[in-house]
């Protein structure tokens, strides 16, 4: 599910990707702390004016990268962020999720 062209031929992210990005940024910024519960699916549906399926896709994407866990009947909760080993290299989850930032976190200089 990649970007989709709109009526003007410009590409845009699918709705689930927008929700995933908003929630990911809130988690990484500390708005939802470790172990905290995310807003309910109903609340996310209302906030973003989307269907339950779209909310599920966003939450599944966050679960796939290890940012959240679901507890049946209780909702979705922020998981501890851990370093991930990839072919002998250790990469922080933040670096994996924000690949456009250099490893130092400082803006890249051009020129």
Shape: globular
Residue share in helix: 25-40%
Spatial order of strands in the largest sheet: 1-2
Q: Which stretches are low in confidence, meaning pLDDT under 50 for 5 or more residues running? A: none
- The overall pLDDT average reads 80
Provide the structure class: alpha+beta
Profile the largest sheet. Answer: 2 strands, antiparallel
Distance between the termini: 35 Å
CATH topology: Arc Repressor Mutant, subunit A
Please write the CATH class name. Mainly Alpha
- Give the percentage of residues in beta strands: 15-25%
Order of helices and strands: EEHHHEEEEH
Q: How many structural domains?
A: 1
CATH architecture descriptor: Orthogonal Bundle
Count the beta strands: 6
Continuous helix count: 4
Q: What is Rg? A: 16 Å
CATH superfamily label: Winged helix-like DNA-binding domain superfamily/Winged helix DNA-binding domain
Description:
This protein has a single domain, classed as Winged helix-like DNA-binding domain superfamily/Winged helix DNA-binding domain (Arc Repressor Mutant, subunit A), CATH 1.10.10. Helix 2 (41-48) packs across helix 3 (52-64). The chain is globular. The chain has 111 residues and is an alpha+beta fold. A two-stranded antiparallel sheet has the order 1-2. It has a two-stranded antiparallel ribbon with strand order 3-4. A two-stranded antiparallel ribbon has the order 5-6. A hairpin with a 2-residue loop joins strand 5 and strand 6. The longest helix is centred in the N-terminal third of the chain and has 14 residues, at 15-28. It has helices at residues 15-28, 41-48, 52-64, 93-97, and strands spanning 4-5, 11-12, 68-71, 75-78, 84-86, 89-91.
């Amino acid at each position: 599910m990649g970007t989709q062209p709109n009526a003007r031929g410009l590409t845009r992210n699918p709705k689930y990707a927008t929700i995933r990005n908003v929630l990911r940024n809130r988690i990484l910024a500390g708005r939802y702390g470790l172990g905290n519960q995310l807003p309910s699916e109903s609340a996310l549906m209302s906030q973003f004016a989307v269907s339950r399926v779209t909310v599920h896709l966003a939450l599944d994407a966050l679960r796939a990268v290890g940012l959240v866990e679901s507890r049946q009947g209780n909702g979705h909760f922020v998981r501890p962020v851990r370093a991930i080993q990839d072919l002998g290299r250790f990469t922080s989850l933040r670096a994996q999720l924000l690949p456009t930032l250099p490893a130092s976190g400082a803006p890249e200089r051009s020129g």
